[in-house]
Specification:
The chain has about 625 residues and is of the alpha+beta class. Helices cover about 60% and strands about 10% of the residues. A five-stranded antiparallel beta sheet has the order 1-2-5-3-4. Strands 6-9-8-7 form a four-stranded antiparallel beta sheet. Helix 4 runs parallel beside helix 12, helix 4 runs antiparallel to helix 16 and helix 5 crosses helix 8.
Length: about 625
């Protein structure tokens, strides 16, 4: 028995080590890291070189559920309230209505591709409908690209909040199909159970997050125990919510948001610990699901599964996203990018285990199809997010260049903390800019020697400067100690000159011989940019004005314009305007033009009828009043 236990421990630890080391390959070639974890699990499974025979669906679901709960808690913990303000409405509609629309469209197509009943197709649609929090958060936060705030926030909040509706639909459909009562009381029971799950999940999550924050702030524990009790409390919130009939996944996500946005002790230590546990959870979940799969069964369904993945990627998800985001004023390119980043991941495979546990007739085919859809999504969408984002103009210049920073939390619950910076050779501080008075340098380490700030002289490249400041000012300090932003001298990105947002358009038109109309004569550059961008101001936004481009060089935390760049030649890198995903104004304009065409056509038909009738034409050859049959 001990020998078998040692073998199991060795194999498990070796697989985790291999998965971690393969991250080097992922970063080198740009492959989605979660895809690499999944492939490692497949290679270790029964059809791979190691030939590990693992077919316990219950254990796989247990491991996956715990791992997903930890991932969602950390996702909520890292989500700022400002992100929720920007994205709460769009993300809420996407994570509910969007999931249902996607499931119905996929279900309709799946019944013909696989020859299965409609409700089995909808079950498959509910399984592959949600975007995966682990995949989306990893690719957006670690992928090395800076996205427009509203788009990034919407994608992150959607991926963290759309699991409950998918899990709910999957459980309900599996239960009814097992019981053979798919249509009896369908609408009423779904509505009641869904409202109960969402309501209890919301209340339990908000209360659980508050309790977690109180435990951390009031309990006097060893510092190393705080991260452990927080993870344990998060899992307790998840389990207890499920026990009372609520959505545990929604509860644990909301608990993370509440705890992460509350001022708590040991916040830095908690974040570092949770980053490690989240990585371990992702590895464990993807390895386990990879081990559970049987690739030798894939060829029988690979063609219809790929066809379904293509329909999901290019039709179902885009249509659902377009309809859901239509009321929120998203541009065509923003909708296209949100549609493309509908990454499927471990959540879909995890949900596909439920039909297997329920012993449904088509359970294995559903599981294999979901697995192939996830593989296709990670390969096609995961590998191309950066390229598609740049093509659609969703990637904006970084606000800061590279910066080395370490935060040190002070004992007690004071307002200040110590931040350690390494001075970049090309940073503003290294080039003579003074450190503001509200940030007090406490120590400078230069060449292995500790120096008092008043005796160290001007900061030099490579210095380690320990600054006492409040958390609110850390982002401002980042800009002082960071290196230059990549492409900072590129006029296509930032323009040749800098002007203030309070500069009047009339003054600008006089200086650069631009056309000026009465509508724009009395407004400033900042007001014009806010009007043209519909208030959705982002760093790097640009608006054409005459023969020049006005570029948003800098915004503050409230998205107010601080600095505007002026490009004398309009950029050749402008993102293309795709021909689909019209917004509300464009749709209204299309309807108006359609009505006008119908009206003209009706008037033309009336005119044709009048000219074809000879008798009235002879009686009134020149009808100045236009009241006869010759009415225009």
């Amino acid at each position: 028995m001990l020998e078998s236990l040692n073998i199991a421990i060795f194999i498990g630890s070796a697989l985790v080590m291999v998965a971690v080391l393969t991250s080097l390959v992922s970063f080198r070639f740009g492959a989605p890291l979660l895809l690499v974890f999944l492939i490692v699990g497949l290679l270790a499974g029964e059809d791979g070189p190691l030939g590990i025979d693992f077919d316990n669906a219950g254990v796989a679901f247990f491991v996956g559920a715990i791992a997903l709960a930890i991932i969602l808690f950390d996702a909520g913990f890292e989500t700022r309230v400002a992100t929720l303000r920007v994205a709460a409405g769009p993300a809420a509609v996407l994570s509910t209505v969007g999931v249902v629309l996607t499931a119905l469209m996929v279900g309709f197509v799946a019944q013909y591709l696989f020859g299965i009943p409609f409700f089995a197709g909808v079950l498959l649609g509910a399984i592959v409908a949600p975007t995966d929090a682990a995949a989306v958060f990893f690719l957006l936060r670690v992928g090395g690209i800076t996205l427009r705030d509203r788009v990034r926030s919407t994608l992150e909040v959607e991926s963290g909040s759309n699991d409950p509706i998918s899990i709910f639909l999957t459980l309900v459909l599996v239960e009814w199909m097992v019981g053979g009562a798919v249509t009896d009381g369908l609408t009423g029971e779904i509505a009641v159970r869904f409202l109960l799950q969402i309501g209890l999940g919301t209340v339990a999550g908000l209360a659980g997050g508050w309790v977690i924050a109180q435990i951390v702030n009031r309990a006097q524990l060893e510092p190393a125990l705080y991260p452990i009790i927080v993870i344990a409390a998060a899992l307790a919130v998840f389990a207890l919510t499920g026990m009372i009939g609520g959505s545990g996944f929604l509860a644990v996500y909301l608990a993370g948001i509440v705890a992460g946005n509350t001022r708590i002790r040991h916040a830095l230590a908690l974040r570092r610990f949770q980053q490690g546990t989240t990585w371990l959870s992702q590895i464990a979940m993807f390895l386990t699901l990879g081990l559970l799969a049987t690739p030798s069964q894939f060829p029988a369904i690979v063609l219809p599964a790929i066809a379904l993945a293509a329909f999901l990627t290019f039709v179902a998800r885009p249509v659902a996203v377009w309809l859901c985001l239509l009321p929120f004023g998203f541009s065509r390119n923003e909708i296209a990018f949100v549609s493309w980043v509908g990454l499927r991941g471990a959540v879909s495979i995890l949900l596909a285990i439920l039909p297997v546990i329920g012993r449904l007739p088509d359970a294995q085919a559903i599981f294999n199809t979901a697995f192939i859809v996830v593989l296709a999504s990670l390969v096609v969408q995961g590998w191309s997010i950066g390229a598609v984002g740049r093509f659609l103009g969703m990637v904006v210049p970084a606000r800061f260049g590279p910066v080395e920073r370490i935060e040190l939390e002070l004992p007690g619950r004071g307002d200040h903390e110590i931040v350690a910076y390494v001075v970049h050779p090309e940073s503003p501080v290294a080039n003579g800019q003074r450190i503001p008075r509200w940030a007090r340098p406490a120590l400078i380490v230069r060449g292995g020697r500790s120096l008092r700030p008043d005796r160290a002289g001007r900061p030099q490249a490579g210095d380690h400067i320990y600054v006492l400041t409040t958390a609110n000012f850390i982002r401002l300090l980042d800009g002082l100690f960071a290196g230059p932003v990549e492409g900072a001298g590129d006029p296509d990105l930032y323009g040749e000159f800098s002007i203030g947002p309070d500069t009047s358009l009339a003054e600008l038109a006089t200086l650069y011989d631009l056309p000026m109309d009465k509508e724009n004569g009395d407004i400033t550059v900042g007001e014009m940019l806010r009007r043209e961008l519909a208030g959705n101001i982002e760093h790097g936004d640009r608006v054409a004005y005459g023969r020049i481009d006005l570029i948003v060089r800098s915004v503050d935390d409230d998205h107010r314009i601080v600095e505007v760049g002026l490009a004398l030649e309009q950029s050749t890198r402008a993102a293309p305007r795709i021909p689909i995903f019209q917004d509300r104004r464009e749709i209204a304009a299309l309807f108006r033009r359609g009505r006008m065409r119908l009206r003209r056509r009706g008037m033309g038909d009336a005119g044709a009828l009048s000219t074809s009738d000879p008798e009235p034409a002879e009686e009134t050859p020149d009808d100045p009043s236009g009241d006869g049959n010759g009415r225009p």
